[in-house]
Amino acid sequence: MNSSVESADQPTSAGTASGTPKVGQRVLHRRYVPYSHAHYAGNLVDGAYSLAAFGDVATEMCIITDGDEGLFASYSDVQFRAPVRAGDCIEIEATLVRVGSRSREMEFEVRVVARGNPERGESAADVLDPPVVATTARGVVVVPPR
């Protein structure tokens, strides 16, 4: 899994948060969806796969901004827009959209950036340009008081 963070803050040192959480901060993960996660015909994975990925990027966001993993409080407006399949390469993005005293509201998006293409060969795959937006949501995470 790859990860990147975009922020106006300076790079963080090990074991410390970057400081004040800022609206617009983003965390991006990329990962391959293994065939062991296929749940339905056509190698489809269930929607919970995207929600778990949202939890992962939210956890990293909270570690970066608050020095704590935080706890997910709620999801809202979850939209399953396109399938995620085993063999896909996906990127999962969290963007901080609201900062409360203990709450952090984020927008999430799963994009399929590459997909297996068995018609061309057993291990063939194609980069999707543009990526396919598969799942979107908003969520709220709470962190301990500072």
Layout of secondary structure:
Layout: E1 2-6, E2 26-32, H1 48-66, E3 71-80, E4 89-99, E5 103-116, E6 125-142
Antiparallel strand pairs: 1-2, 2-4, 3-6, 4-5, 5-6
Detailed description of the structure:
The protein is mostly beta strands. It has a single domain, classed as Thiol Ester Dehydrase, Chain A (Roll). Helices cover 13% and strands 45% of the residues. The chain has 1 helix and 6 strands, in the order E-E-H-E-E-E-E. It has one helix at 48-66; strands at residues 2-6, 26-32, 71-80, 89-99, 103-116, 125-142. Strands 1-2-4-5-6-3 form a 6-stranded antiparallel beta sheet, with helices on one face. A hairpin with an 8-residue loop joins strand 5 and strand 6 (125-142). The longest helix has 19 residues, at 48-66. The protein is elongated and about 55 Å long. Residues 1-22 are annotated as: Disordered. Keywords: Hydrolase, Lyase. InterPro entries: HOTDOG_ACOT, HotDog_dom_sf, Thioestr_dom. GO terms for molecular function: hydrolase activity; lyase activity. Residues 1-19 have a biased composition (Polar residues).
Notable traits:
six-stranded antiparallel β-sheet, 1 helix, Thiol Ester Dehydrase, Chain A, lyase activity, 6 strands, 146 residues, single chain, mainly beta
CATH class annotation: Alpha Beta
Q: Beta-strand level of the residues, as a percent range?
A: 35-45%
Q: Element order, helices and strands? A: EEHEEEE
What is the helix fraction of residues, given as a range? 10-25%
- Round the Cα radius of gyration to an integer and report it: 16 Å
CATH superfamily: Hotdog Thioesterase
The low-pLDDT segments are 7-16
Determine the N-to-C terminus distance: 30 Å
Number of helical runs? Answer: 1
Summarize the main sheet: 6 strands, antiparallel
Counting helices, strands and paired strands, the structural category is: mainly beta
Number of strands: 6
